[in-house]
Design brief:
single chain, mainly alpha, two-stranded parallel ribbon, two-stranded antiparallel ribbon, 7 helices, 4 strands, 7% strand
Length: 138
């Protein structure tokens, strides 16, 4: 995975506010690059230093294996949840998920300025690095 893409994904994830969430595919769409699987790969390998719990599967399920830790963040941040999350907190049993319809981040104008800057920087860096070095390019 290219470093430029990893950095762009992580920068965008940091913009998602407390109590909100996005799907992996949302991140790719906002960047205008990659797809849900690429974003998922970035998050699983490099996302531990950012607000990883705010990036979910499209069905609202927390990252696999991190459900208990993520749930504590969701409750603390007031993220909309559905299902038996209180049972899960008490006993570790019970199915739940983030209500992504209610929690999905809707960026505002200022957010879009930041997102556009991240996406443009990514595009410039990817384009610059992929330019041929054949001494024929003008």
């Amino acid at each position: 995975m290219r470093t430029e893409y990893v950095e762009a994904v992580l920068a965008l994830v940091e913009l998602v506010p407390p109590g909100a969430a996005v799907a992996y595919g949302d991140v790719a769409e906002l960047l205008g690059s990659g797809g849900a699987r690429q974003v998922g790969s970035v998050m699983s390998h490099h996302g531990s230093g950012v607000t990883w719990w705010r990036v979910l599967r499209a069905n609202g399920e927390a990252p696999q294996g991190l459900e208990a830790e993520a749930l504590r963040f969701y409750v603390r941040e007031g993220t909309p949840l559905v299902g038996r999350y209180q049972d899960f907190l008490r006993t570790g049993e019970g199915r739940w998920r983030v209500d992504l319809m209610a929690a999905r981040w809707a960026p505002e104008d200022g957010d879009f300025d930041l997102i556009d800057a991240i996406a443009e920087r990514l595009e410039r860096r990817l384009h610059k690095m992929s330019a041929p070095d054949d001494e024929m390019t003008v």
